[in-house]
Design brief:
alpha/beta, Spore Coat Polysaccharide Biosynthesis Protein SpsA, Chain A, ten-stranded mixed beta sheet, cell wall biogenesis/degradation, UDP-arabinopyranose mutase, glycoprotein
Length: 361
Amino acid sequence: MATAPSANLKDELDIVIPTIRNLDFLEMWRPFFEQYHLIIVQDGDPSKKIRVPDGFDYQLYNRNDVNRILGPKASCISFKDSACRCFGYLVSKKKYIFTIDDDCFVAKDPSGKEINALEQHIKNLLTPSTTHFFNTLYDPYREGADFVRGYPFSLREGAPTAVSHGLWLNIPDYDAPTQLVKPLERNTRYVDAVMTVPKGTLFPMCGMNLAFDRELIGPAMYFGLMGDGQPIGRYDDMWAGWCMKVICDHLGLGVKTGLPYIWHSKASNPFVNLKKEYKGIFWQEKAIPFFQSVSLPKECSSVEKCYLALAGEVKSKLGEVDPYFIKLADAMVTWIEAWNMVNSSGEKPAMTSLPNATSKK
């Protein structure tokens, strides 16, 4: 029987949280998060004081810190959009990242037990993915499961898992038109399953309950150029998901989706969302076929090389759809430059040594 390892990765994982408000929601997560380091990326007005409950080990960055650390390259970090969270990925020193939104609470399974979402993400990341052949019992590495009859033995080692995509109970992750026609709909279905997203298949990645192996796929987890000053919002995680999946497929890495669930507590305003999503709803009909057909050169053997090649394809192909994609492609290149600048000089400086960022243990 294939079994998942049990580990908390206390010294190998950072929790990244984008926010514009006090983080009282952390009280509910205290039993699960207190032993981990938090990287909080404050969006909006940097002069606003964000309160973090006592007892957490955290680093708080605002826009002034982003500008100071990245200089001109700070232009690739979105403003007034949750896409700013990827700055946390950039400055982390850990192997793994878990990111969650501040309106997401601890969910309960059908038995009434509180779900340790982080523990399940870790299990997902520490077990292989079945990218090349679908197992009808879903994740064969889960306790109580295995490979079914007819599954090729040559493929049972699987592929390294780069991304663990969790789901949500209560408020569904809908686009604005669906929100408008289903304002009272709530997700009450708890499906006790984890599955690998097959090679060659795209999916809509949601950033509110997400974990990934930063060393395996970190440079591809750029949440785009969204929000203030841009013609689009709420497609930041989608963009990262499409780019990431193409690169994972190219490099032979896996993506899992399903457990764990969190409780999504607050529905955003559908009319505000429609204004942010309007262009994206049309553009995605061009972008998705692009990602379905794009091919990366064989010589692209690293995530960075893949991402730069993908940026070039975005510029030449999607640039014809709208000039925004030319700007986005340039930001993708800037992002890789920023990633290499922050991460390439051996051991990065301790976060507490960065002058203006707030740190507390």
